[in-house]
Amino acid sequence: QVQLVESGGGLVQAGGSLRLSCAVSGRTFSSPVMGWFRRAPGKEREFIASISRTGSTTIYADSVRGRFTISRDNAKNTMYLEMNSLKPEDTAVYYCAAGITGTDPTWGQGTQVTVSS
């Protein structure tokens, strides 16, 4: 069984940056595809970015492309989301997930990101 724990959220001013981490424990860090999602108040969960097992393939939502960067360090069993040029509309709870192309992905508990204007 895989467990995911996000960290790195917080309060930042618009235009600022944050780096989220997703630590993976339990079974080996073998999920072929992992990703980041977010849920803003009153909105549906939104896909942000995904990354392949080796990190060679990344996909981004239009809303974050060019501002956010997803990466993973398999030696450290950790995935990251570097967020730059943050906007108030980026305010949300951010979740990491493993096995997102399967039928039963594993989710972390989420970390709050708040961007003030």
What does this structure look like?
The chain is globular, with a radius of gyration of 13 Å. A hairpin with a 5-residue loop joins β5 (45-52) and β6. Strands 2, 4, 5, 6, 9, 10 and 11 form a seven-stranded mixed β-sheet that branches. It has a four-stranded antiparallel β-sheet with strand order 1-3-8-7, with no helix packed on it. The protein has strands at residues 2-7, 10-13, 18-26, 33-39, 45-52, 58-60, 68-73, 78-83, 92-98, 106-107, 111-116. With 117 residues, it is mostly beta strands.
Short note summarizing the structure:
The protein is 0% helix and 55% strand. With 117 residues, the protein is mostly beta strands. The model has no long low-confidence stretch (mean pLDDT 94).
